[in-house]
Amino acid sequence: MPSASSPYTTIEEWEEAAATQRAAARGVARLIADTLRRQFAGAAYLVLYLAPEHDRATRLFPHSVRDVGGTILHDFEDHLMPPVGHGTAISAAWGDLSPRDPFDLRRILRCLDTTGAVFDNYPEDLRTDDDPAETTMPCLLLHATARPAPFHDENDADASGRLLRPHSPLSFAEHGRADRDD
To answer: Environment class of residue 42 by beta-carbon count within 10 Å: exposed (0-12), middle (13-18) or buried (19+)?
Structure first.
């Protein structure tokens, strides 16, 4: 960060800030995953929709919550989501935002997207007839049993370092956590 003696941020400071931001994004993704799993029994995927007619800051929308077989548990055309319980660590982590409000969820997802977080792609074989066929559908894996579509972005060599997988076996190995339903 710039200091009184220099107007510049060093490369090392910038890299440390980026690493801190990636860690915070993983923590927020874990909060979203744990919230949705508490709200919807069997939740395995948060499926997202990219609106191509929107700019990068407003292109991402929550589409649906689905189980491991692709059954829709919640469609975001519905308004409020179920409560998570007052006084829980999950409700406290949401702060002034509401875990029941799909607009608050959309705001958080868009912040993750615009700051460079990368989402998995929803598996093609789990799509429904109502899903947009002409595009990939990003998703957040909510449970260790969820499987992503093959991830591939030849234009972004750093994408795997920004990929949000809060409940994958890899994320547990990296962070020393076990998958729990609490």
So the answer is: middle
